[in-house]
Automatic annotation (TrEMBL):
Originating gene: hutI_1
Coiled-coil blocks: none
GO biological process, one term: L-histidine catabolic process to glutamate and formamide
UniProt name for this protein: Imidazolonepropionase
Species of the source: Raoultella planticola (Klebsiella planticola)
This enzyme's EC code(s): 3.5.2.7
This protein's record includes keyword rRNA-binding: no
Gene Ontology MF terms in the entry: imidazolonepropionase activity; metal ion binding
Alphabetical keyword list: Hydrolase, Metal-binding
A single cellular component GO annotation: cytoplasm
Amino acid sequence: MAAGLLTPGLIDCHNPSGLRRQPAQEWEQRLNGVSYQTISANGGGINSTVRATRESSEAQLLALAQQRLDRLLREGVTTLEIKSGYGLDLENERKMLRVARQLAQNNAVELSPTLLAPASPPRRRNIKTARMPILRWCVKPCCDAVGRGAV
């Protein structure tokens, strides 16, 4: 018998599997002392994630997320949180939720979709002035659509 480890399935929370961009390079920069503000000023950070997610088609997001889920399952992850909130408008939030639903239907990994809205305020807005309009014109319709199964 080969050596091995028997353990319950791993849980990966706060995972950006449904996102177009993976910020691994930014994590490395942070570990090397670069501030988040510097990374953001150089075009990285959450606004880069928002931009890449909005520019991606549903099929692109689904294919990328499926590759990541397959890898995570091989590594022992059986439960995964997947976040929306990076679309910042109704169309893109619904796109992310449809991807999450398709992933949940076709995978052995148990998915826990989480709404993180807004993940970032739209350009030239601060989070305090952006939050309520986004909740009104984006989050509530998304929640209503999910409840009706019409995402």
